């Protein structure tokens, strides 16, 4: 039970200055949930002795079984600092890489974060991800260096060695923060230089300063003397900051507390004679203050209680620290229990961390302008281009005002499921004594009436009561009462996980639900035109281009970990649960009382969902139930994707194996509750072309051999030197296309710049500009600011975005120039990129009679037929790159060069009407012929598959490295590098592993290494599988090495055929030819079987004749 009343929390909700919204971030198994248990125990919700064992914030069954957190959950805590009370909304988030989307939903609602680092494992990959998410969301972190007890018990370090080791860990964390800080400052300085550069002034000097010297980074780094670092052991229940020991030793040493705060951590020592704090402890071989007064005392406590188990020493420690132990703790035989009892009173972890939260982390009222603009305006657009009504809302964010006059602004980061019976309004209420007596009398009356009815319905002989008859009547009555009792509801309902940024959210209040694509400019214009929002419409009822619904808020909840508490209203600055939004919010949304409020920017997801499976019900009649369950699963998980393919197949896309297993369990047990069949994991591939290889499969030089390609219709008379000539069906247009592989650096740059291409596609719209001569040569300018963009398009983009586009263009120019003379002028010839206008394939325009502007500039329209069918040409290219010829997977790293495009003067399509055209509209013919031409040009070149690759980070002990390398080798993995963790026998190994070979990798490696190696898999990049899918042995060496069939070595063909079979495409399967000796043996065996069968039939016939004589 809580040790305070809920009224205190309700009152604190109205004072945002006393509220702290924080989340716990860390790598997996670094102690997040154990720390959360310690903090929860301070409010009396759980016992302090159960902290770290109960895992209170992990409410799911699979979370308890696996021992990892899978979802972020919030709880409201009360903390007293001095004479003031604070309300702390604590969110515990997962550390496993598969559930990093849950971290994103938590970080968006917070103002601060607790970053936990295991001092033995150090800064791990997910630690860096956590720090990056905190940096991107502009929230202030504090640091907890956890598991210091492992340095004492496992590593058996001396206090001085531990101090040096802790300084190194702290430097690693600060190095990550410094990297993010430097990247941001350099990005801002580039934008400022672009704004201030005067190209016409030849005498101006270039400013070589980076801007780092002018930036204030005093509050950026973690340092114990700043009060933002806590040293802790969450499992033993203790933690401290240097301020705690500064208070203790200030009076004993006669040194001021302020001086000790600054010198207790660092290269300082105490001069014993003068009792002065001096600098240069390491140089003079002196013990630093932190070692002498902190770590040595801590080491001595562990040594006395846990190692030597000295009862007398324990008694002295208890007396000197002025703490009390129960007789049971003093008699306990487990030293760990005694240690927890001592340290939890000497240096209580929860109090230290909560004090740091209240002192160092900001309240909702301290939100910065930069964070507000990031929340409501995309990084590619300018804030001052938003409508004036929207810009005025900025002050509402900054003031965090909870008054009636302030506009209501609420952001929903996710929807989480709760069983209907667990809602506060559906819980059984405690009855008063009067109600209990009243119900007892009513039950007696019903029992008497029921008994009379049963007696009146029987003959007189059966009316004589006896013990058996009365028992039968009572049993019958009880059974009927049980049958008539209402059945429990197990239906899942969704609660919105939200934060109020401005105004007051009340029950019965009517608010707008703004979808993620809501545009305030369009919505305000529609309101001016008299359009109104339909109050009965839900998300599925909205028409295309409409993203607003209207609701009445019916239920508000305070999130208390595993429980919910009803609220009547919630003020600005609070985290809240909102019920009744199931049909209005899919994943995220914004609630407001005005449509001028923009939708919040998209969450920053650190993991790309890449693992796919196809799902179908075991019984076809359950298909509708499965579809509903998939919709609920999609709503409940921020990272999951549900795709219905053209074939009607339902595909589930997840982040990894653990995430997939959790989704399947939820689907079977919570949402659909039907039996399902799950396909083998579907792994995406990419298709590409390469330069003709110079060596064969056995590394022999290829001489006078053409590329090994599939013999298709592509090698006909229309193909010359890799150039494919295509005609439309009505013979009115001819196109010559050639495919070429893009350099790897350019492919990578295009892939990482997809967001900029999306911005270009959105902003650079086709404008009708009258021109005198369309065929006039177009001159491309050298600066983005000189491009023929509309003023509106330029003003909508931020200077940072314009600079990024300009940098992208310059990088492409340099890379094309380095690639060779065949790529000269390629940047100015770029027609489009694909697929989806943001992919890693390029369409180049080298048509002599069509000088269109490049994709960096606006296209001019006129009377030219080429301009009329320009969009059809691009659409054909997009369709071709979306589904390649190998196995209908998207292309990557391919450049299609248009050498010639001819349209006859008077196409037949222009003369006839659409119904008279025998081959369909001419634009459709152009689209079709471009698509087919790109596919044929692709097939002419050496074709390859590209595999998705995981970056695999493994922590393993030295004795199991060989077994770990063996597992990686069997799965075609490749080790990049491995470093030993300083001061331990643990290695950090970084490797790459094909996604298609990664299934059950983690269980296998744990099994082979007896649990001493734990991998973390994150999608990294795409890599070419350098095997021709259509390769067959040609040389004597290849026949000798691979044999006549060569089916064992062609991995690419195996992957390709698996994908083609899954998609229902044709697969060429050859019946294997047997060796002559094997054929003879099989023929003889078949003849023998035939002979034996004939003899058996003859014997059966003879036996039949004998029996019937």
Give the gist of this structure.
With about 1100 residues, this protein is of the alpha+beta class.
3D architecture notes:
The protein has 1109 residues and is α+β, with helices and mostly antiparallel strands. Helix content is 38%, strand content 20%. It has 36 helices and 34 strands. Strands 14-13-19-10-11-18-15-16 form an 8-stranded antiparallel β-sheet. Strands 2-3-1-4-5-6-7 form a 7-stranded mixed β-sheet, sandwiched between helices. The longest helix is centred in the N-terminal third of the chain and has 38 residues, at 159-196. The radius of gyration is 36 Å and the shape is globular. The N and C termini lie far apart (95 Å). The model is unreliable at 197-204, 459-490, 704-709, 711-715, 765-793 and 1073-1077 (pLDDT under 50). It comes from Timema podura.
> Based on helices, strands and strand pairing, what is the structural class?
alpha+beta
Strand content: 15-25%
Biggest sheet record: 8 strands, antiparallel
Query: Could you tell me the number of beta strands?
Result: 34
Alpha carbon gap, first and last residue:
95 Å
Oligomer: single chain
Give start-end ranges of low-pLDDT stretches.
197-204, 459-490, 704-709, 711-715, 765-793, 1073-1077
How confident overall, as mean pLDDT? 82
Query: What would you report as the Rg, rounded to the nearest angstrom?
Result: 36 Å
Helix % is 25-40%
Shape descriptor:
globular
Number of helices: 36
Query: Reading side by side through the largest sheet, how are the strands ordered?
Result: 14-13-19-10-11-18-15-16
Protein name: Tr-type G domain-containing protein
Pfam family, one: GTP_EFTU
InterPro entries: EFG_II (IPR041095), EFG_III/V (IPR035647), EFG_V-like (IPR000640), EFL1 (IPR056752), EFTu-like_2 (IPR004161), P-loop_NTPase (IPR027417), Ribosomal_Su5_D2-typ_SF (IPR020568), Ribsml_uS5_D2-typ_fold_subgr (IPR014721)
Keywords: GTP-binding, Nucleotide-binding
């Amino acid at each position: 039970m809580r040790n305070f009343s809920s009224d205190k929390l309700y009152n604190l909700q109205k004072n945002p200055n006393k509220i702290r919204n924080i989340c716990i971030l860390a790598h997996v198994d670094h102690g997040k949930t154990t720390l959360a248990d310690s903090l929860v125990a301070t409010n009396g919700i759980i016992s302090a002795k159960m902290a770290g064992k109960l895992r209170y914030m992990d409410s799911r069954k699979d979370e308890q079984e696996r021992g990892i957190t899978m979802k972020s959950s919030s709880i409201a805590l009360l903390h007293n600092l001095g004479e003031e009370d604070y309300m702390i909304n604590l969110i515990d988030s997962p550390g496993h890489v598969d559930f990093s989307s849950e971290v994103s939903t938590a970080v968006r609602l917070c103002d601060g974060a607790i970053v936990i680092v295991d001092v033995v494992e150090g800064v791990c990959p997910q630690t860096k991800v956590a720090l990056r998410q905190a940096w991107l969301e502009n929230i202030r972190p504090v640091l907890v260096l956890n598991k210091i007890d492992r340095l004492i018990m496992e590593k058996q370090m001396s206090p001085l060695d531990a101090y040096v080791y802790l300084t190194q860990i702290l430097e690693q964390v600060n190095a990550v923060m410094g990297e993010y800080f430097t990247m941001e400052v350099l990005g801002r300085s580039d934008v400022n230089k672009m704004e201030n550069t005067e190209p016409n002034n030849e005498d101006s000097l270039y400013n070589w300063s980076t801007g780092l010297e002018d930036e204030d980074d005093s509050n950026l780094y973690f340092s114990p003397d700043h009060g933002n670092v806590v040293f802790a052991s969450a499992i033993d229940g203790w933690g401290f900051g240097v301020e705690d020991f500064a208070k203790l030793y200030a009076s004993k040493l006669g040194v001021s507390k302020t001086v000790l705060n600054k010198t207790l951590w660092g290269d300082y020592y105490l001069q014993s004679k003068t009792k002065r704090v001096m600098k240069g402890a390491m140089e003079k071989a002196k013990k630093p203050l932190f070692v002498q007064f902190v770590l040595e005392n801590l080491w001595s406590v562990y040594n006395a209680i846990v190692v030597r188990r000295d009862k007398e020493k324990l008694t002295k420690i208890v007396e000197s620290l002025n703490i009390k132990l129960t007789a049971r703790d003093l008699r306990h035989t487990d030293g760990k229990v005694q240690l927890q009892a001592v340290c939890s009173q000497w240096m209580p972890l929860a109090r230290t961390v909560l004090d740091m939260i209240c002192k160092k982390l900001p309240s909702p009222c301290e939100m910065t302008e930069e964070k507000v603009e990031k929340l409501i305006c995309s990084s590619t657009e300018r804030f001052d281009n938003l409508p004036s009504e929207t810009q005025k809302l900025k002050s509402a964010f900054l003031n965090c005002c909870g008054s009636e006059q302030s506009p209501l602004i609420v952001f929903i980061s996710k929807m989480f499921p709760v069983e209907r019976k667990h809602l506060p309004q559906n819980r059984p209420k405690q009855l008063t004594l009067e109600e209990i007596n009243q119900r007892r009398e009513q039950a007696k009356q019903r029992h008497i009436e029921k008994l009379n009815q049963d007696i009146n319905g029987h003959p007189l002989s059966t009316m004589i009561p006896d013990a058996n008859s009365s028992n039968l009547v009572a049993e019958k009555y009880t059974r009927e009462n049980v049958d008539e009792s209402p059945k429990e509801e197990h239906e899942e309902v969704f609660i919105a996980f939200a934060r109020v940024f401005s105004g007051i959210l009340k029950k019965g209040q009517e608010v707008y639900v703004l979808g993620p694509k809501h545009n305030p400019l369009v919505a305000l214009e529609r309101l001016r035109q008299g359009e109104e929002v339909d109050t009965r419409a839900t998300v599925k009822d909205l028409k295309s281009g409409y993203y607003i619904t209207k609701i009445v808020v019916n239920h508000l909840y305070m999130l208390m970990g595993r429980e919910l508490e009803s609220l009547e209203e919630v003020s600005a600055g609070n985290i809240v649960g909102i019920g009744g939004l199931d049909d209005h919010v899919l994943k995220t949304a914004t609630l407001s009382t005005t449509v001028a409020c923009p939708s919040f920017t998209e969450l920053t997801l650190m993991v790309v969902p890449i693992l796919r499976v196809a799902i179908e019900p075991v019984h076809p009649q359950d298909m509708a139930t499965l579809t509903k369950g998939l919709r609920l699963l999609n709503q409940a998980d921020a990272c999951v994707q549900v795709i219905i393919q053209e074939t009607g197949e339902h595909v589930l896309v997840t982040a990894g194996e653990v995430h997939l297993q959790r989704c399947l369990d939820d689907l079977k047990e919570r949402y659909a509750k039907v039996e399902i069949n799950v396909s083998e994991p579907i792994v995406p591939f990419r298709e590409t072309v390469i330069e003709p290889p110079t060596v064969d499969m056995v590394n022999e030089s290829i001489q006078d051999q053409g590329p090994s390609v599939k013999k298709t219709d592509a090698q006909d008379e229309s193909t010359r030197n890799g150039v494919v000539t295509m005609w439309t069906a009505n013979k009115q247009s001819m196109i010559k296309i050639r495919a070429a592989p893009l350099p790897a650096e350019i492919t990578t740059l295009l892939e990482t710049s997809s967001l900029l291409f999306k911005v270009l596609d959105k902003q650079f719209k086709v404008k009708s500009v009258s021109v005198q001569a369309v065929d006039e040569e177009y001159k491309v300018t050298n600066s983005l600011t000189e491009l023929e963009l509309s003023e509106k398009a330029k003003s909508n983009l931020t200077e940072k975005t314009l600079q990024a586009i300009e940098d992208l263009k310059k990088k492409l120019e340099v890379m094309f120039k380095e690639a060779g003379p065949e790529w000269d002028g390629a940047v100015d010839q770029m027609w489009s990129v694909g697929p989806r206008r943001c992919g890693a394939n390029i369409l180049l325009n080298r048509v002599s009679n069509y000088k269109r502007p490049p994709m960096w500039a606006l296209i001019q329209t006129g009377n030219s037929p080429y301009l009329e069918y320009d969009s059809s040409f691009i659409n054909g290219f997009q369709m071709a790159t979306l589904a390649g010829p190998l196995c209908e997977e998207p292309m990557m790293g391919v450049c299609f060069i248009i050498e010639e495009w001819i349209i006859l003067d008077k196409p037949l399509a222009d003369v006839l009407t659409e119904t008279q055209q025998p081959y369909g509209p001419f634009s459709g013919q152009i689209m079709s012929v471009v698509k087919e031409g790109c596919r044929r040009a692709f097939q002419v070149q050496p074709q390859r598959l590209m595999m998705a690759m995981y970056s695999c980070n493994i922590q393993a002990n030295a004795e199991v490295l060989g077994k770990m390398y063996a597992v990686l080798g069997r799965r075609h993995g490749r080790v990049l590098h491995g470093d030993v963790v300083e001061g331990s026998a643990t290695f950090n190994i970084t490797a790459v592993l094909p996604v298609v070979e990664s299934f059950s990798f983690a269980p296998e490696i744990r099994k082979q290494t007896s649990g001493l190696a734990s991998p973390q898999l994150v999608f990294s990049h795409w890599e070419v599988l350098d095997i021709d899918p259509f390769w067959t042995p040609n040389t004597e060496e290849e026949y000798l090495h691979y044999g006549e069939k060569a089916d064992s070595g062609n991995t690419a063909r195996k992957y390709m055929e698996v994908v083609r079979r899954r998609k229902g495409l044709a697969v060429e399967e050859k019946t294997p030819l047997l060796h002559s000796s094997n054929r003879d043996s099989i023929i003889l065996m078949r003849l023998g079987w035939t002979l034996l069968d004939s003899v058996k039939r003859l014997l059966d016939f003879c036996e039949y004749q004998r029996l019937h004589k």
